[in-house]
């Protein structure tokens, strides 16, 4: 395990982070759409309101946390029949009726918590760390934070003496670090923030970053998927977990599955939510991810006019006037990428797949891709995951790599790596079985 995770503390990652503004469960879906567009990991923490009287401690604050609301949750909600019938009412719905309660997704920690302890929390399912915002934080680097006889010491402690205020590795300890805290001001660290820190310390992690995700055991074969011919609304009945993504696949003759797209919080992050909700409720999964224009003639496309804000220049974050508009893949953020694309061709779904991918194309890597390359992919695309395909094929799906998988890989002991004598063929055979 790299010493960088032991010598650094959570406070090192809070430098320059803005103060967190709580988003309350009484806010509307319309307000949540705007907030999610400015968030990380395509979601926002949702809170209950503070009590009017009294001082709030960390336990009370933790109990106020409801859960994390992401873009997939909102589109799934707006795709309900009652919401499609009255979109204006749906947009005014309080988010308490949409968010899935899960208080374990956020944990409040002290700025002096070791980074290795924070990574352990996130490997166990925590997605956000709530950290006290400080005026002065002195634990900025290894030279300020030292270990002496197995104890994690504060900056102002003397290694030659004893101190009853020494920090421990308990992440739930009260705030005793060397900070000047600003009361009731916090910042929120996401797994994306952790990943940005890790990719800035690749040299200290050598040789892990250049190792393949296969050899590190970072590939998760347990992913959610749905066939392209199935109605897209079926995706709302699947609980994808982490990452919040569902692969859209086509079965192959040999029993394998080829990925053609995904229905995920990442892809729906900054889409037109009303148009995406209509498409989710009315199209097949394949049509949803590829774009309805692929197999629509101009005449049939006109039949898909809906009361949506798709393509309206006056809309903001998918919210605006509701006048009849033609649905298109551009409405939900999908744009044709091949030259000369035209709906007049009337191509079939299968024939047009290789011609029209655009933003609907899933983010993929190979079994032999390095850990550093996968991390760079995720950060550059602001994605929470990367789908893994076979080495010989660009679209035969074998697994997925998410934040939790990467955090496990970078903290893994070298002895825990998959032996090199185990072939890639054996790995893919195990997944298929």
UniProtKB/TrEMBL annotation:
CBS domain boundaries: 355-417
GO CC term (a single one): nucleus
Classification via Gene3D superfamilies: CBS-domain
Keyword Repeat among UniProt keywords: yes
Keywords carried by this UniProt record: CBS domain, Repeat
Domain of life: Eukaryota
Region (Disordered): 158-179
Classification via InterPro entries: AMPK_gamma/SDS23_families, CBS_dom, CBS_dom_sf
Identification of the protein by name: CBS domain-containing protein
Organism: Acer negundo
């Amino acid at each position: 395990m790299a010493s960088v995770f032991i010598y650094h503390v959570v406070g090192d990652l809070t430098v320059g982070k803005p103060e967190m503004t709580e988003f309350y469960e009484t806010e509307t879906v319309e307000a949540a759409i705007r907030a999610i567009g400015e968030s990380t990991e395509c979601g926002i923490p949702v809170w209950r309101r503070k009590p009017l009287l009294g001082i709030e401690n960390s336990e009370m604050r933790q109990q106020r946390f409801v859960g994390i609301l992401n873009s997939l949750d909102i589109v799934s909600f707006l795709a309900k029949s009652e919401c499609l019938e009255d979109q204006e009412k749906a947009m005014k719905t309080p988010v308490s009726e949409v968010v899935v309660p899960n208080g374990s997704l956020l944990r409040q920690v002290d700025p002096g918590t070791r980074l290795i302890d924070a990574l352990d929390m996130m490997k166990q399912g925590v997605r956000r760390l709530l950290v006290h915002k400080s005026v002065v934080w002195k634990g900025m680097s290894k030279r300020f934070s030292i270990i002496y006889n197995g104890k994690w010491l504060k900056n102002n402690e003397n290694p030659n003496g004893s101190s009853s205020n020494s920090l421990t590795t308990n992440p739930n300890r009260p705030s005793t670090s060397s900070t000047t805290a600003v009361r009731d001001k916090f910042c929120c660290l996401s797994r994306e923030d952790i990943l940005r820190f890790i990719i800035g310390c690749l040299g200290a992690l050598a040789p892990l970053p250049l190792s393949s995700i296969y050899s590190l055991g970072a590939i998760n074969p347990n992913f959610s998927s749905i066939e392209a011919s199935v109605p897209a609304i079926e995706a709302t009945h699947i609980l994808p977990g982490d990452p919040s993504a569902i692969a859209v696949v086509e079965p192959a003759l040999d029993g394998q599955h080829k990925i053609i797209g995904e229905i995920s919080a990442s892809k729906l992050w900054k889409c037109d939510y009303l148009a995406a909700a209509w498409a989710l409720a009315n199209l097949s999964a394949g049509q949803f991810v590829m774009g309805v224009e692929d197999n629509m003639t101009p005449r049939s496309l006109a039949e898909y006019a809906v009361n949506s804000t798709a393509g309206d220049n006056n809309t903001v974050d998918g919210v605006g006037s509701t006048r009849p508009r033609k649905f298109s893949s551009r409405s939900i953020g999908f744009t044709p990428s091949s030259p000369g694309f035209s709906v007049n061709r009337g191509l079939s779904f299968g024939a047009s797949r290789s011609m029209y991918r655009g933003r609907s194309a899933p983010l993929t890597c190979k079994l032999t891709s390095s850990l550093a390359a996968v991390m760079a992919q995720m950060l550059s695309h602001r994605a929470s995951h990367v789908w893994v395909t076979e080495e010989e094929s660009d679209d035969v799906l074998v697994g997925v790599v998410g934040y939790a998988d990467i955090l496990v890989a970078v903290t893994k002991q070298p002895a825990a790596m998959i032996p090199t004598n185990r072939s890639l063929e054996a790995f893919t055979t195990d997944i298929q079985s």
